[in-house]
Amino acid sequence: MPLIILGGIYSGATTPTEAAAVATVYCFPVGFLIYKGLKPKNTFQITKDSAVSAGTIMVMIMCSMMLSQTYVRLQVPQAIMGSIFGITQNKFLILLLINALLLFVGMIVNDTTGIILVAPLLQPLAMSIGIHPVHYAAIFGVNLGIGCLTPPYASLLYLGMRVGKVEFSDILPYVCLFLLGYLPVMLATTYWPALSLFLPRVFGYV
């Protein structure tokens, strides 16, 4: 299943939604015939739980899109630009402030919601200091990825705990070490644009 999902997405053969659909079709014969964890009596409950989880995320995304559009109409991005430029016009410090905000957002909402909610707000600011859109997207991805492992929201952390059947106190030291190792990646992504732009330039996208 990881090969179907990640291989399909990263090879460009499928979109994430298509990869999920193919993986779902794959899991039924494997679950029923090989692992035998799927049975007619629990299939409905599993489907129901999945639908509830997906529905909850979709409601969050809908509300985030509404709020994002409201921010744009109220010209909140322009107000943020004015406030930050009133503090500093140093590109290094502005990127540091963007990182801090994205880390905070990642700690309280999931990555998709964070992108929809914050990306339109910070994009004018990033463009004004000469950040390439691909580089901007990479900064978003890395920071929100860290946020998904950082309490209180920590969606990926709690999912990993459920899959691995471990307690928060058991996994916390290893997560802290991982985050410390992730910090240089975040700084390199933020302050070394070539790291994010190298492959897109090779393939002629930028």
Helix/strand order, N-terminal first: HHHHHHHHHH
Distance from first to last alpha carbon? 33 Å
- Summarize the biggest pleated sheet: none
Question: Any idea what the radius of gyration is?
Answer: 20 Å
Q: Structural class, judged by helices and strands?
A: mainly alpha
Round the mean pLDDT to the nearest integer and report it.
85
Number of helices: 10
Main attributes of the structure:
globular, 206 residues, 83% helix, single chain, 0% strand, mainly alpha, 10 helices
Give the topology.
Blueprint: H1 2-11, H2 16-34, H3 40-73, H4 76-87, H5 91-108, H6 111-128, H7 133-147, H8 155-164, H9 168-191, H10 193-202
Helix pairs in contact: 1-2, 3-6, 4-6, 5-6, 5-7, 6-7, 7-9
Brief write-up:
The protein has helices at 2-11, 16-34, 40-73, 76-87, 91-108, 111-128, 133-147, 155-164, 168-191, 193-202. With 206 residues, the protein is mainly α.
Q: What can you see in these coordinates?
A:
- It is built from ten helices and no strands.
- With 206 residues, it is mainly α.
- It has helices spanning 2-11, 16-34, 40-73, 76-87, 91-108, 111-128, 133-147, 155-164, 168-191, 193-202.
